[in-house]
Write a structure and sequence with these properties.
heterodimer, A: mainly beta, 5-stranded antiparallel beta sheet, B: mainly beta, 11 strands, 52% strand
Chain lengths: 110, 116
């Protein structure tokens, strides 16, 4: 079992819709969770991080964490074509090391 | 956010040569830097953790004698790919952790290495 798992996609949504990206992790002791966006050929950029169960909102983005189910998700409201990218879920391990999931490719169609 | 630079941004070299990649934190001090490698259509894989003034910690399966890491100062870490071969062609990305130990990592723009 991979430490962090994501559906590779592509996930295709129409412009203006809500995109829902999901991630599961295997280490029940994980405490910190991150969502990164990566455009092709570029390095990842941090979108959000979440530590506590529940929802955390930042603009059009909402991160949701359910530690009991070992599940973290990212919702993107009013999706735009510029949101088309690969979204990486990451978990912090000891020593502040990030373990990344395989990423989900999102395509927002005009 | 904090700024991390990498140099060069891309490099093409012949098989057997060595390539050095620099990672700099421009506006903060980084006691810890990380080196990742990303093959096409795959996620980032951590190669090693680089701590200022000490030896790097390599992940399982990463050859420390092939991928030499030097973290000589709080703002600079270098990765040298020795005797590069075509299978080393990849996107190498560094990230830096602020000395305050924040969970946020700031990524460099990456270096595209192509070994002919």
């Amino acid at each position: 079992q991979k430490e962090v798992e994501q559906n590779s996609g592509p996930l295709s949504v129409p412009e203006g819709a809500i995109a829902s990206l999901n991630c599961t992790y295997s280490d029940r002791g994980s405490q910190s969770f991150f969502w990164y966006r990566q455009y092709s050929g570029k390095s990842p950029e941090l979108i959000m991080f979440i530590y506590s169960n529940g929802d955390k909102e930042d603009g059009r983005f909402t991160a949701q964490l359910n530690k009991a189910s070992q599940y973290v998700s990212l919702l993107i409201r009013d999706s735009q074509p510029s949101d088309s990218a690969t979204y990486l879920c990451a978990v912090i391990k000891a020593g502040n090391m990030l373990t990344f999931g395989g990423g989900t490719r999102l395509m927002v169609k005009p | 956010g904090a700024v991390v630079s990498q140099h060069p941004s891309w490099v093409i070299c012949k098989s057997g040569t060595s390539v050095k990649i620099e990672c700099r934190s421009l506006d903060f001090q980084a006691t810890t830097m990380f080196w990742y490698r990303q093959f096409p259509k795959q996620s980032l894989m951590l190669m090693a953790t680089s701590n200022e003034g000490s030896k790097a910690t390599y992940e399982q399966g990463v050859e420390k004698d092939k991928f030499l890491i030097n973290h000589a100062s709080l703002t600079l870490s270098t990765l040298t790919v020795t005797s590069a071969h075509p299978e080393d062609s990849s996107f190498y990305i560094c990230s830096a952790l602020t000395s305050g130990g924040a969970d946020e990592q700031f990524f460099g723009p990456g270096t595209r290495l192509t070994v002919l």
